[in-house]
Write a structure and sequence with these properties.
Layout lengths: L6 H17 L6 E6 L9 H8 L2 H4 L2 E6 L7 H6 L5 E2 L3 H9 L4 E8 L4 E5 L16 E4 L1 H5 L1 H8 L8 E3 L5 H5 L3 E6 L3 H9 L4 E4 L9 E7 H6 L1 H20 L3 H10 L5 H13 L8 H4 L6 H13 L29
Parallel strand pairs: 1-2, 1-3, 6-7, 6-8
Antiparallel strand pairs: 4-10, 5-8, 5-9
Length: about 350
């Protein structure tokens, strides 16, 4: 028969159990890195939110956000295995397929690309097609080779003679009423309004048929094959972060954004959030009923077809290698929307 423990023995056993528990390490979080494509801003807010409010930790992840910028090479760091995830886009991933580089989009946070063309308010430009009447369009080299080619193929009147290089300053545009310039819906219009004192005309290319996803969660095929659970948890936590950023208290996330990018202002952050909501940058199309981050073959193929039509991609490229739908479109986080 087992003998009953004395009070002293019982307390000794409790003490030993407590010591063993204290000595046992807590369950370690999986360390994950995510590289953004530019300096910290509200357009990255959901990722910062998931760090700030503990959502990543809840999913067993210790996430480091590596901000991009003019001298960053985060896409190259992903390819070399020094980052786990990157804020890519379908053009980059389809190009990678053509080069035999196994990069894969696993979530599309922006259902609409925020690319816009910006015009003066009093020069007769009332709809997208009217931009073809202008003498000058200030565009980046990448814009000239992609969406301007798309514009020429799909709308009458646009011509190469309109093109002038965009030097990322609004000064030439502001000095010339017979011009328009490229920009991001969430940033350049705000700066122009501040500097010039007028509200410019803004034309979102996505609302006129241009269809790339943007602000992706991109990883490598090796990561998907080797750590699919980590990929799923990072995607789910990031999606929850975005719902919380848009509809919850985003104060701490914005503090982290300003810590990484001290030049950004509260006014710019508020403007960006408002425009993302107003234009359905994150919530539109498939994401409305399937959740933020949704990727579909139909949407991805539409962009691929647009780009093959203007010879950006080869027609025989297997675009389906550039993305997977297995981690998204599950309604994750939708209950958090208030």
């Amino acid at each position: 028969m087992l003998k009953a423990l004395t009070k002293t023995q019982f307390l000794s056993c409790l003490g030993l159990a407590a010591m063993l528990a204290a000595a046992s390490p807590a369950l370690a979080l999986d360390k994950v890195s995510y590289g953004t494509n530019w300096l910290a801003q509200a357009e990255h807010g959901g990722f910062y939110q998931a760090v700030a409010d503990g959502t990543y930790a809840k999913y067993g992840l210790d996430v480091t956000i590596v901000q991009g910028g003019p001298n960053a090479a985060n896409s190259a760091l992903l390819i070399s295995g020094k980052l786990d995830f990157y804020m890519g886009g379908p053009q980059g991933e389809i190009s990678a397929v053509e080069q035999g580089i196994p990069l894969v989009d696993v979530a599309a946070i922006f259902q609409k690309d925020p690319q816009v063309l910006i015009a003066h308010p009093d020069n007769g430009v009332d709809k997208f097609e009217d931009l073809a009447k202008l003498k000058t369009l200030y565009l980046s080299k990448d814009g000239y080779l992609t969406y301007f080619e798309w514009m020429k193929a799909n709308f009458k009147g646009f011509k190469d003679e309109q093109y002038k290089p965009y030097n990322f300053s609004p000064a030439p545009f502001l000095a010339d009423k017979d011009s328009a310039q490229q920009g991001y819906l969430t940033s350049e219009p705000y700066e122009i309004q501040k500097q010039a004192g007028f509200e410019p005309k803004v034309f979102l290319l996505a609302d006129n048929g241009y269809s790339p996803y943007s602000t992706m969660i991109t990883t490598t095929q090796a990561m998907i094959d080797g750590k699919p659970d980590v990929v799923q948890r990072f995607v789910d936590a990031s999606i929850e972060g975005w719902y919380n950023y848009l509809y919850g208290d985003n104060t701490k996330a914005n503090e982290l954004i300003k810590k990484d990018n001290p030049e950004i202002t509260d006014g710019q952050i508020a403007y960006s959030i408002a425009k993302m909501k107003e234009y359905g940058i994150i919530e539109s199309g498939d994401s409305l009923d399937k959740g933020i981050g949704c990727i579909t073959d139909a949407h991805y193929k539409k962009f691929f077809d647009e780009m093959t039509a203007i010879k950006v991609f080869k027609t025989d490229t297997d675009y389906t290698k550039a993305f997977t739908t297995k981690f998204v479109c599950k309604g994750t986080g939708m209950a958090l929307k208030k």
